[in-house]
Amino acid sequence: MAQHEHVRVAVIGSGFGGLGAAVRLRREGITDFVVLERADSVGGAWRDNSYPGCACDVPSHLYSFSFAPNPDWPRTFSGQEHIRAYLERVADTFGLRPHIRLGHEVTMMRWDNDELNWVIESANGTTIVADVVVSATGPLSDPKMPDIPGLADFPGKVFHSARWDHDYDLTGKRVAMIGTGASAIQIVPAIQPKAGRLTLFQRTPPWVMPRMDRNISGAERWLHRALPSTGAARRGLLWGIRELQVSAFTKHPNELGLVERVAKSNLARAIKDPALRAKLTPSYRIGCKRILLSSTYYPALAQPNVDVVASGLAEVRGSTVVAADGTETEVDAIIFGTGFHVTDMPIADRVVGAEGITLAESWKDGMQALRGATAAGFPNWMTIIGPNTGLGNSSMILMIESQLNYMADYLRQLNVLGGRTALGVRTSAVGAWNRRVQERMKRTVWNTGGCTSWYLDARGRNTTAWPGTTGEFRRATRTVDLGEYEVIRPRKTDAAGAVVAGKAVAEEVAR
Fold it and tell me: What distance in Å separates the CA atoms of residue 145 and residue 346, rounded to the nearest whole number?
């Protein structure tokens, strides 16, 4: 058998989740690990999404690691270039570069029941064996392109917002923007001034709140550098405000009425044309889809070179794009802001567990994982930003750090158990956790607000969002409960090599 590199932990992806996992591993004294990244640089979603106007809708001081505060954020809501630069600094500051393998796209991960480890194959032909895999590919890593009849024969330019073609000049072009999500509302104001004609295809209008963005003054930045506690206090205040808002999303959606009125006022101030305002007014409860922040989106739509088609794209005929309502428009370029594979992540097709089936097959009826981290049938494998860990009003970095706590204790438990050991989460534990989450989900605005969103899977189940506070999730992921796991040891064989005890021994050990 060929000899392959063996590591204690393999981390997949180098966005916030992957780099955060790498930092935590080093802080736990684990240096025998690699970070496998398919691209040629770190950054994850903040590397891939470089479209004009790209920025975060979470305040800067909350959208950063608690262990790596940045006193020099230039704006209250930072742009893509600043967040990506921050992640590059994290990689340098914490000495992660020697562990990072760029250009290593994982094509398959297979669990070896005999050796109790993962065999990881990469597109570049390398194979790595790891005792534990931490999958941090993220839900916003693989763009979703709709299957539109005739699109393949379109003679102009076509690209997704997450794969922006910076070599293509939009000046004077007739552009079709497909979608009205978080990316689209940033792209539209950025490209409207240069486009000859911009047509927005809108299936469902979003709720848009004013974006209270500003430059952070030099004095503020000096203060945060000189007295780090002031930056921590700022972060704590931002966190606390959002924690207080959670119950309106998860328990009492009717309390969002005031927020809805503010959003309607924002729309009315910018859009004077009653017909256009009617097109842009949502018919569902605010918060059902992610609330978007922009002070420039509505003013851009009111410009004379912009048309809003209140219908999705249905067909392409040559250089003509046709909406579902029959509207036809001649365009030179089509930009898709149609989101990502969130509930059907492609990485799930590349993970083969103990029973010889893929994670995608295991999740065919919907994603579920214990505490958003571990899946039944996949020992010593966990995911960062897993099922039901998404947020509707706060920073995902808070959820990532909680899952890193869980990862760290998982590895500690393996060390305490000693030897070649694996932890396989019990199906009953995953089921119990998922039932509690889904029961709580019934009251949330995401399930009751009257919309269809990317939070829901093909069966209409919300397998994406977390129906509680970030503090509650942190408490739930502080430590690993071994009662929820099966401890797996190597199989015992007789002198002839026949298996005399396998999984039954593992179950006995777990008790």
Answer: 13
H or E element, residue 278: helix 274-279
Q: Per CATH, which fold does 5-142+342-510 belong to?
A: FAD/NAD(P)-binding domain (3.50.50)
pLDDT at 130 over 50: yes
Say how far apart CA 76 and CA 241 lie, in whole Å: 15
Residues 330-369 have pLDDT tens digits of: 999 999 999 999 999 999 999 999 999 999 999 999 999 9
Instruction: Enumerate residues 6+ apart whose C-beta is below 8 A from 301.
Output: 188, 200, 271, 276, 280, 308
- Taking the C-alpha atoms of 40, 46, 52 and 56 in order, what is their torsion angle to the nearest 10 degrees? -170
For 90, the enclosing helix (H) or strand (E) is helix 80-93
**Model confidence, pTM:** 0.94
Q: ∠ CA 382-383-385 to the nearest 5 degrees? A: 150
SS3 435: helix
- pLDDT tens per residue across span 169-197: 999 999 999 999 999 999 999 999 999 99
What CA–CA distance (Å, rounded) separates 13 from 19?
8
Tokens representing 339 are 């989101």
Provide long-range contacts, Cβ within 8 A and 24+ apart, for 154-159. Answer: 154/316, 154/318, 154/319, 154/334, 155/318, 155/319, 156/319, 156/331, 156/332, 156/333, 156/334, 157/332, 157/333, 157/334, 158/333, 158/334, 158/336, 159/335, 159/336
- The answer to whether 19 and 404 have CB atoms below 8 angstroms apart is no
Q: Tell me which of 2 and 28 has the higher pLDDT.
A: 28
| pLDDT confidence of residue 491 | 79
Q: What backbone phi and psi angles, to 5 degrees, belong to 158?
A: -135, 130
> Residue 312 and residue 192: Cα distance in Å, rounded?
20
DSSP class of residue 467 equals S
Buried b (16+ CB within 10 A) or exposed e, 217-250: eeebbeebeeeeeebeebbeebbeebbebbebbb
Whether residue 494 has pLDDT greater than 90: no
CA 155, distance to chain mean position in Å, is 33
Assign domain 151-212+238-336 to its CATH superfamily: FAD/NAD(P)-binding domain (3.50.50.60)
Q: Give 463's Cβ-side CA count (13 Å radius).
A: 21
pLDDT band at 62 (very low <50, low <70, confident <90, very high): very high
Rounded-to-5 percentages of helix, strand, coil across the chain: 35, 20, 45
Domain boundaries along the sequence of the chain: 5-142+342-510, 151-212+238-336
Q: Which residues pair with 492 in a beta bridge?
A: 501
Per-residue pLDDT at 392: 87
